[in-house]
Design goal:
The complex is a heterotetramer of chains A (about 220), B (about 290), C (about 425) and D (about 700). Chain C contains 14 helices and two strands; from the N terminus they run H-H-H-H-H-H-H-E-E-H-H-H-H-H-H-H. With about 425 residues, chain C is mainly α. In chain C, helix 8 runs antiparallel to helix 9. Chain C starts with 14 loop residues before the first helix and ends in a 10-residue tail after the last helix. The longest helix of chain D is centred in the first third of the chain and has 17 residues. Classes of the chains: A mainly alpha (about 220), B alpha+beta (about 290), C mainly alpha (about 425), D alpha/beta (about 700).
């Protein structure tokens, strides 16, 4: 090896001129290179896995805490608030008017959150700007009616046991795509354990394939 | 969903060219229904997005024997050779951004999948596909009329008529909550059909003998004995399809009592028309 | 100042002269790059393409560079598989030209698509029925193969080759190159063909549509064949240009004659097939769709029968004949004429199979659509040419591209390095 | 320990490898493509509950029922209202594109006051008080007649409020622009007596002889016309279309009879001559004709015999004979008049001549014929309170018979004829012939108030612009008109809250009246226009508010109708085109371009063919025989006595030789790049030609020449 390096020095003074200064003939260089390689690899891999998601997602709190468990207890099933309209469309997160069916002017309970609700929104007649964890992009047509009415699915399959939650988790939004983190899933690799861990198209297709024998035609879910 | 696959629809259209007045309602209804953008100069028709385009055709004769007919041209929703679903555009799309719905016969176009290679446009002889050369822009405030049922496109992708698929979806949603298996003929009608003041457009399921479109078209269930690629030829002597001989098998049919109009629907060698014009599918040989 | 990098024993022009040359071509390159960025950031409205011309100048350029780049796979096939050993003297150059052509093609495709950031969908969401999918896969794979074929040549650079690892790598890669050449030939066969298939499968376009074998229309085979036939012409042409510019003979005549002869026979057989195809299409295919041949060549201000005759006779039959006849083949002037005509011919064929298809009206009430490219399209089409010139200049200067160079241009008593 | 190249190499390679095996690569690749799918500059329509509200479109006289689809509070689409008596589900492109008017950012967003060459925004209070102050000055100078007004039509409660305002103010000078309805009324007045109007039972007629009426070009109530036309196929009814150009109506007709422009009256009279000569008329009906039937017959046989008219009209005398015979022998024939859309310039001679065909065959008030009935009256206003100024003012002579004469007078006079002008829903600076002269006249009026939603050509000339609601935002009664066989009143409802600081024009006039105080204010005692409407429509308000539509009359009118033929028997002169060039320029009515004052919507403009508008050039139609030396799509200079325009040429076999056709509705100069500064306004190229006797502007075209540019 050294022979070749010597050649280099002798052979071309011009090109090697500067580089010879930092050159070394001992083999420690390789060892050091390996160490550097390993260190850089580990640092970059870890930051890519751990730090990157933190940078990629912004984190915001909901306007106030919402206790699903409490509401399920008081109001009944999911479709008490998240119901299908007569035309078959889905209301999504209820509007203020729906809330007011139960929450008349005076607070019903004594929680701090309800106080915020009453002061900031009910009295000002303002809609609550909820962040929607499961919001699909504009190109998606999703029919709740097809899944719950015709397909007989329950809400948990896709939305998980959100009805049992007592508090709202922070909403994380992908800074590049604007998607909620729940679409890609909590796991940065996109691995999922439960059917509700991810809501990407592949997850829809997988279930469709399983349940209907066909992953579906494009227009079935796109608009 | 399962029953849907068993009972395949084949949505199609028949347009009465004797009634069509060329008024443009269908075009505007389509644009307004489907969030089609507009730009400052739309007089270059080669870059003007009109899912529904009304062509003006003349018989080529000179004054005063000239005649005109208007021919509205939505996406033809071709079934491809033998009506197997390999329409000219679907078969060439490299990224599966357009597919053939075997449950409806409708050719989709998914803007978010499309990466803008434009092969489908080259493959379509009807010029039914349009490219977004520009970012769509609405004057300030006008985006307020955009419909949430159809997603606005972005520049660099192809778009085309969807037979107002979202209306089919809405009709099905309604059927789901009503506990019905299927939708009624009148529940799913395209925006151009309902807008047409002359009632020139009839839309429905070509597979359903109860539907008006089936009754007018009387599609031949057998392949055409002259060209095995052609399926669904109309047995109504006044009904024709555009470029039927190519074997694209469109689901848009046209109706006219005028012979020159029917002839303008396809290309014929000299003398060929007289020989072919009375041929209306396999049944005419029965 | 860069003499250490120049192959031993080779004479090259002075560095400033070289730098000036590069700078001039580089300016053209930058112009192209500017146009490229315009297209990326502002969108394809920068072009004169429209809904009738979804495929236009760029796709032609793409098809043309891939066709002329076909010299790489075909020469490789002959050299490594059919063991035509003389071709080792031009194989490096053929590979470089192939590399330039294919990288250019990929670049043009990246500009041509409306949504470059989604370009990978063609792989991820591939539609196996689409000829373009086949093109994308084979093109990318073959580009990888070409890169691998190119690497040993790079490793032969005087400085690089001094590193034993690279030296041995280069040596070993040469050893296994036959495998890559075979892979490359296979891939090339498919993507050249599928590029032809792109047109041939458009059954809505009577000017393009062809019958065929299984899923492949005849254009599939014609494209492959024509690329194999005309690709070597382009290799020879660029070699000739390089010789002219450098003022040196770089490839021995016998090598040139051999390649020209092979090319000549390929062209001749191709053009026979092409003529048969055209006659069958004109007399069987299109009449069944209601068209006469004249429909495609009249009633417009540009596309006349001249284009068919030029492509088939002047740029097909003529170069084929000139190259298979020994006397004309070995006459440098006639040979040059033949290879120039051949290159024009294949480019014209690709033009016709892209742009004329779009121009021809299909619906009886439609009209001819003609198109003139915008400067952005032209600049981005010239961009690969500039890039190719620069890459050839650099490789020629620093790599032992032509093994016969020193023998043919001995400045001092030749002493081989080894 | 030395850090050498290898270390850096190691560092670099390690970093690359580390990142490569981390999720960064796949995630960023995926996210970057998703980013392109959701570009922040691509709008995302807000979702919500869907609802439909029915209303009535008042963009044109069609009065179609519409159904407005809303998402939440936001109207997103206008469609035809199924089951509506006029249009039953169909809709025209302008109505469908109506929301582009609603949301148009170039609308007048707030009251404006002219300040030099620009407008400044002012409050409604200031605007009203400025107007009131000026009007009070006019009244104080005891010349209330110097307030003039121009409206688009004389129908419905808002027009009635304007008229009421003018009455109580004391000015007789309120005018409407010529509409099909006004032309029908003028025809009825001439033949049958005042206070009546004419309608055509096109849905039942089995032989429609149309003298240039663009039955599918926007004539009358367009959607109703389309429906009636389309139903011909099932009813086996015939349509013969007489006009110089193969219009869409002509193309759709069973027969197109090209006629030299401006000779339709001659042709109609020739047909009358045939019917009289061959005794094909309804003798019972003709027996009751007043005004000299014999005199008329003598005149017709002498002057208008088909043999004589063949040369004049360009129609073979045998054809005239055949068609007249077919018409007279048909079971339910009807002759339809009003060239193009039937609005704008028309010759009374022509209208009456054609209508005489109806009278002769006795189809008046018969199924499939022409209906003669009293003008729709359903408004019941309380008595006006008049002061002496008003009473005096109303006795003074009108400044002119029609708006055109008023403008001519203003231009000719050295002193102000008109001190103040109200313009409501009209755009005379665009729609009247010789539009430049109208602009000049407006410039001479010291105080112009425009009630407009858009900064149109006339509004631009105004001193005060009072922005009014579009039809999507306002409440208004919309009576049908324009030749419709049935008489219905629809209710336009505020489907959308006002987008800008605009008002209902009814409210604006009420506010002005109140600001003037005294008797005028007393005559406008309503709190708002909404209250007013309810109180003045007592007979139909329940239907209107509940059903959205009230049917006033349907079916065949009963009662006998007087016919007086003296007008024709006196042989009024036929109007000639101005100028002496060899070619005649005529306007083309195209369904996709409104010819009234409002510009087409961006969607409508988008549908316009490139053989009508190319870039910013109007394309004129011309027969190849006439177009010697001109190239198809090439540029040409079109010259008329009124002006010159650079146009493009469309060689069109459907155009009669010797005639140049140019579409109406282009050449607007609104501040809206999508619809304005495109093409030429044909009204700039044609000057008015006043028909002697009727006083109507009857310029059917103008002589012109064209040469390669």
């Amino acid at each position: 090896m050294s022979e070749i390096e010597n050649k280099t020095e002798n052979g071309s003074t011009e090109s090697a001129g500067e580089r010879t200064a930092g050159d070394t003939k001992d083999d420690k260089g390789l060892g050091l290179g390996v160490i550097f390689f390993i260190v850089a690899f580990v640092v970059c891999f870890l930051s890519g896995t751990l730090l990157f998601p933190k940078l990629l997602y912004s984190k915001r709190e909901q306007p106030f805490n919402f206790d699903h468990k409490l509401h399920v207890g008081e109001a009944g099933d999911c479709d008490s608030c998240h119901y299908l309209r007569e035309d078959g469309s889905f209301v999504g997160i209820p509007k203020l008017a729906t809330c007011l069916d139960c929450h008349s002017e005076e607070p019903m309970g004594e929680t701090e959150d309800e106080a915020i609700f009453a002061e900031e929104y009910v009295s000002k007649e303002k809609e609550v700007p909820w962040f929607i964890y499961s919001r699909q992009p504009d190109c998606v047509f999703f029919s709740h009616a097809a899944h719950t009415q015709s397909g007989g699915m329950d809400c948990v399959t896709c939305h998980g046991p959100i009805g049992e939650s007592t508090s709202s988790k922070p909403y994380q939004e992908n800074r590049i795509t604007g998607y909620s983190r729940d679409i890609w899933g909590e796991n940065i690799w996109g691995f999922k354990k439960n059917s509700w861990d991810r809501m990407k198209m592949d997850d829809c297709a997988e279930c469709h394939k399983q349940e209907t024998g066909h992953q579906g035609y494009c227009f079935q879910c796109h608009k | 969903m399962k029953q849907e696959n068993n009972k395949a629809h084949k949505f199609g259209m028949v347009i009465d060219l004797d009634k069509c007045t060329g008024c443009g309602s269908c075009m505007v209804s389509c644009m307004s229904e489907n969030n089609v953008p507009f730009k400052e100069d739309e007089s270059n028709k080669k870059d003007s997005i009109t899912w529904m385009r009304v062509y003006k055709i003349t018989n080529g004769k000179s004054f005063p024997d000239t005649e005109i007919v208007y021919l509205p041209r939505p996406c033809q929703h071709c079934g491809g050779k033998g009506d197997h679903g390999h329409s000219p555009c679907v078969s060439v799309c490299p990224a599966t951004a357009t597919d053939y719905g075997y449950d409806t016969g409708i050719v989709s176009q998914i803007y978010t999948r499309c990466f803008g290679c434009r092969y489908c446009m080259g493959a379509c002889p009807y010029h039914a596909r349009y490219f977004n050369w520009w970012d769509p822009k609405w004057p300030e405030g006008m985006e307020n009329y955009l419909s949430p049922n159809v997603s606005p496109r972005m520049r660099g992708v192809v778009e085309k008529c969807s037979f107002c698929y979202h209306r089919y979806q809405a009709a099905r949603d309604k059927a789901y909550v009503d506990g019905r298996d299927d939708i009624e003929e009148q529940e799913y009608q395209t925006a151009c059909t309902t807008a047409c003041p002359a009632g020139a457009i009839v839309f429905g399921d070509l597979n359903n003998p109860a539907h008006a479109v089936h009754q007018i078209v009387k599609p031949d269930p057998h392949p055409d004995p002259r060209n095995k690629h052609i399926v669904g030829k109309s047995r109504n002597p006044n009904v024709f399809r555009l470029l039927e001989r190519l074997g694209t098998n469109p689901k848009v049919y046209y109706l006219s009592e005028r012979e020159w109009v029917r002839k303008a629907g396809d290309n014929y060698l000299e003398g060929e028309w007289d020989e072919i014009k009375n041929h209306h599918g396999s049944s005419s040989h029965d | 100042m860069d003499s250490a990098l120049i192959p031993e024993g080779a004479k090259r022009c002075s560095f400033p002269k070289f730098a000036i040359g590069i700078a001039i071509v580089g300016a053209v390159l930058l112009w192209g790059v500017y146009a490229m960025f315009l297209c990326w950031f502002k969108g394809l409205n920068q072009t004169n393409m429209n809904d009738y011309y979804g495929f236009a100048l760029w796709i032609w350029a793409d098809l043309a560079v891939i066709a002329v780049g076909g010299g790489a796979f075909f020469t490789g096939l002959l050299k490594y598989i059919f063991k035509v050993d003389e071709l080792k003297n031009i194989i490096n150059f053929a590979v470089i030209i192939g590399f330039i052509c294919y990288s250019s093609a990929l670049l043009i495709l990246a500009i041509d698509i409306g949504q470059p950031l989604r370009g990978w969908f063609i792989f991820w969401h591939a539609n196996v029925h689409s000829m373009l999918t086949e093109v994308a896969f084979c093109l990318s794979c073959y580009f990888a193969v070409l890169t691998i074929e190119f690497i040993p040549n790079i490793l032969e650079n005087r400085q690089v080759n001094r590193v034993p690892f690279f030296h041995h790598l280069a040596h070993n890669m040469h050893g296994v190159m036959a495998i890559f050449a075979a892979t490359g030939a296979f891939l090339s066969f498919f993507h050249q063909g599928s590029l032809g298939g792109v047109a041939g499968v458009m059954f809505g376009r009577p000017f393009a549509v062809r019958e065929g074998l299984l899923i492949w229309p005849w254009t599939f085979f014609l494209f492959t064949w024509s690329a194999a036939a005309f690709g070597p012409c382009f290799t020879l042409l660029v070699a000739k240009i390089t010789e002219t510019i450098t003022g040196k003979k770089l490839v021995k005549d016998n090598v040139v004659h051999l390649l020209a002869k092979i090319s000549g026979w390929m062209i001749t057989t191709y053009i026979i097939a092409k003529i048969i195809d055209t006659i069958y299409w004109a007399t069987v295919t299109i009449p069944s769709l209601g068209f006469k041949l004249s429909h495609f060549y009249t009633n417009n201000s540009f596309y006349g029968y001249w284009i068919l005759i030029t492509e088939v006779v002047l740029c097909g039959v003529v170069p084929g004949a000139l190259l298979i006849i020994k006397s004309t083949r070995e006459n440098p002037t006639l040979r040059l004429i033949a290879i120039v005509l051949g290159v024009i011919g294949v480019c014209l064929n690709r033009w016709v199979m892209v742009l004329q298809i779009m121009a021809v009206p299909v619906m009886s009430f439609d009209t001819w659509a003609l198109y003139i490219p915008s400067w952005q399209e032209i600049a981005t089409t010239i961009l690969p040419v500039a890039y190719g010139i620069i890459l050839i200049a650099i490789t020629y200067r620093y790599l032992p591209v032509f093994p016969q160079e020193q023998e043919l241009n001995s400045i001092e008593p030749a002493t081989e390095a080894e | 320990m030395k850090v050498d190249r290898r270390s850096f190499l190691g560092l670099g390679l390690g970093a690359v490898a580390g990142i490569a095996v981390s999720p960064v690569g796949i995630k960023l690749t995926d996210d970057s493509s998703i980013w392109t799918q959701n570009w922040p500059w691509t709008p995302v329509p807000v979702d919500g509950e869907v609802s439909y509200e029915s209303s009535v479109c008042s963009l044109c006289p069609g009065s179609c029922g519409i159904s407005v689809r809303k998402i939440g509070d936001r109207p997103v689409k206008i469609e035809g209202l199924a089951g509506h008596p006029i249009n039953d589900g169909g809709a025209c492109l302008h109505g469908i594109a109506g929301l582009q008017y609603l949301y148009d950012p170039s609308r007048v967003k707030t009251p404006l006051k002219k300040n030099g060459n620009t407008f400044e925004a002012i409050s409604w209070e200031d605007a009203i008080s400025l107007v009131a102050a000026k009007l009070a000055d006019i009244r104080n100078s005891n010349a209330p007649e110097r307030l003039a007004g121009i409206m688009d039509k004389d129908l419905g409660s808002v027009s009635a409020l304007f008229k009421r305002f003018f009455n109580t103010f004391g000015s007789p000078n309120i005018y409407t622009l010529p509409t099909l309805e006004s032309n029908l009324q003028a025809t009825a007045a001439t033949v049958h007596g005042k206070g009546q109007t004419i309608a055509f039972d096109l849905e039942n007629a089995d032989f429609v002889l149309s003298f240039g009426a663009g039955l599918i070009e926007g004539w009358g109530s367009p959607v109703n016309g389309f429906k009636a036309n389309a139903s011909r196929k099932e009813r086996h009814a015939k349509l013969y279309q007489i006009e110089p150009r193969l219009s869409n109506t002509a193309a759709n007709a069973d027969k197109w009879i090209p006629v030299k422009p401006g000779t339709e009256a001659d042709l109609a009279l020739a047909m009358c001559a045939v019917i009289l000569k061959k005794k094909l008329f309804d003798s019972k009906a003709v027996a009751n004709f007043k005004g000299g039937v014999n005199k008329l017959n003598a005149l017709l046989q002498k002057t208008y015999a088909p043999s004589k008219m063949a040369e004049t009209t360009g129609v073979k005398s045998s054809d005239i004979d055949t068609i007249a015979t077919l018409f007279a022998k048909a079971k339910m024939p009807v002759a339809v008049f009003g060239k193009g859309r039937g609005d704008g310039a028309q010759s009374l001679k022509e209208l009456v001549a054609v209508h005489t065909l109806n009278c002769l065959v006795g189809n008046i008030n018969k199924k499939g014929g022409a209906f003669v009935q009293p003008e729709t009256a359903y408004l019941e206003f309380p008595a006006e309170s008049m002061d002496s100024i008003a009473t005096d003012g109303l006795t003074k002579a009108k400044a002119g018979r029609y708006a055109h004469q008023v403008f001519e007078k203003i231009n000719a006079a050295s002193q102000p004829v008109v001190e103040a002008l109200f313009v409501y829903n009209a755009n005379p600076c665009y729609t009247l012939h010789g539009a430049d002269n109208i602009k000049k006249a407006l410039g001479k009026i010291p105080f112009v108030v425009s009630f407009s939603s858009f900064l149109d050509e006339t509004a631009k000339q105004a001193d005060i612009i009072l922005p009014i609601h579009t039809f999507v935002e306002r409440l208004e009664d919309v009576p049908s008109c324009a030749g419709l066989a049935k008489s219905v009143v629809g209710l336009t409802k505020p489907v959308s809250p006002p987008i800008f600081d605009t008002k209902n024009p009814g409210d604006a006039i009420i506010l002005i009246a109140k600001a003037l105080e005294g008797d005028i204010a007393q005559s406008f005692e309503w709190d708002s226009y909404d209250d007013c409407l309810e109180s003045v429509t007592p007979g139909i308000w329940d239907d209107l508010s509940e059903e959205g539509v009230a049917v006033i009359s349907e079916g065949i009118p009963t009662g006998s109708v007087a016919v007086n033929v003296s007008f024709l028997a006196d042989n009024p002169a036929t109007v000639q085109a101005q100028g002496d060039d060899s070619l005649t320029l005529i306007p083309i009515d195209n369904m996709r371009l409104p010819s009234a004052g409002t510009a087409a919507s961006p969607f409508a403009v988008k549908t316009v063919s490139d053989t009508i508008l190319k870039g910013t050039d109007s394309v004129v139609e011309i027969n190849p025989l006439t177009a010697r030396g001109l190239e198809d799509r090439g540029y040409a200079t079109l010259t008329t006595p009124m002006g010159t325009a650079r146009v493009r040429v469309n060689l069109n076999e459907g155009m009669m030789p010797g005639v140049i056709g140019m579409v109406e509705g282009l050449g607007h100069d609104f501040d809206n790049k999508y619809v304005s500064n495109k093409g030429t306004n044909i009204n700039d190229l044609i000057g008015p030609v006043i028909e002697s006797g009727s006083g109507l502007d009857a310029a059917f075209g103008i002589k012109a020449k064209i040469s390669k540019a």
